[in-house]
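Figure 2 data, in text form.
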Amino acid sequence: MGMAMKQPSGPSSGDYYESRPFTELYDEYYDRVNRYLRCRVQSTWDADDLTTVVFLKALEKFEQYSRTSPFASWIFRIAHNTYVDFMRKNRELPVDQEDFLGAEPDDTWQPERQALTNEEVRLLRDRLDLLSQDQRDVLMLRYFADLKISQVAEVLGKTESSIKMISYRGLQKLQKMYERGDSE
């Protein structure tokens, strides 16, 4: 079974090389891409359709993927661009709080706990909506898509230092909102 590895040849002995086939990468990244898109759009149907579009685009262009950078950066750039195109076409508002949770009901789930979780998610959504578009993009890729700073930078076409600053400022703004207890 192939894996991502350091390629020993070349001018820099630490070059990254992704050797896994598309099917393995699809299996590994499908859920992460789908979770990212579900937190960005209202309809889970649309998120599932967008996820399919992302992987169809990736499959069509897989021969063009250089394999010298992490697959996550490449696939999430496709996912982000697909999301942006979708938003331009549909002018849709981001996700509902029920879809944001994305969890199946559990028989052991307590109604009080679910109500509290729903309220916490609603507050987080309200507060995220108050951030700049850049801050929302960075935080959602970082925390909902589980990307590293370098991968977020590659997806958004920004430097790592700017991603760190945008993330820091977004988190600081969220923290201040929570400390004040406001979402306005």
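Caption note: Residues 1-14, 99-103 have pLDDT under 50 and may be disordered.
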